[in-house]
Amino acid sequence: MDLRQLTTFRELARTLHFHQAAERLGYVQSTVSAQIQGLEEDLGVRLFDRLGKQITLTNAGERLLPYAEQILKVAEEARTAVSGHEQYVGTLTIGATETLCTYRLPAVLRQFHFLYPQVRLLFFPSAFSALRRLAIDGQVDLAFLMEEPIASSVFHAQSFRPEPIHLLVSSDHPLAQRSTILPSDLEGETLLVTEAGCSYRTQFQHQLSKAGVQPTAMLEFESIEAIKQCALIGMGVAVLPAITVASELEQQKLVILPWSGEPICLMTQMIWHKQKWLSPAFQAFLAVTRQVLMKPLDQ
Q1: Strand-pair category, 142-147 with 190-193
Q2: Which of 238, 276, 275, 272 is CA-nearest to residue 255?
Q3: pTM above 0.70, yes or no
Q4: What are phi and psi of 26, to 5 degrees?
Q5: pLDDT tens by residue, 67-92
Q6: Which CATH number fits domain 165-263: 3.90.600.10, 3.40.50.720, 3.40.50.1970, 3.40.190.290?
Q7: Of the residues 19, 44, 47, 299, which has the maximum number of CB atoms within 10 A of its CB?
């Protein structure tokens, strides 16, 4: 068992796809297969189940993954220690929701890559419900979420800016001309929402339940863009962060409904494990993120 095999195992466990793992690692697919086979032979267990083109971690693979993460983390720390503390090298693995990957983080990445081009960044767009677990398990170095302020004994958390959530409809929707929208006005409407576990969807549903309102239908999407497109053609009422619809609002393609319920406002936040070793590259990324995301919105 060597570091290359463990690196390949970790990447395949993340992607569950031989071709994608090979691309991320810069290998040909046969090299990935050979390294996994060698690791399985060395350990005497099967790490992946292969079902046609689909692969999944076996129980043994799931047990190995946190150890592999820890071994590779210590190896990275050792490399940094002997190469000098001012060396901004290595790999940072970052998890984030689709919204933040698309609308908040590009400015951070541009600035960081300009200052530290030798640091490799790996991004894992993830669902709300998965991000904390990815950080706990060490599968990502840090994660970006849109939630209420987090207080945790496990994570360091930093909040940056408020993210208001709106109810939106197309400009020709029957509700678009209303001066106020009560929870009861949504009775019989189709709601266009994100996946279960999403913080703002949970808050909104709680308000409806408290008011005794049952929408006619709730269409659930993993894609923000899909929700917007469905709202634009009048399929229903979308529940989305303001940052995702700035262009559509400016062009008056979507209309914000004047919601009479409690305002829903979350925070863009960055979390990382309290036991995480902060390499020079990691510290630099934290500093750049703070610099960029703490700026006023008009800068």
Answers
A1: unpaired
A2: 238
A3: no
A4: 75, 25
A5: 998 888 888 777 766 665 557 778 89
A6: 3.40.190.290
A7: 47
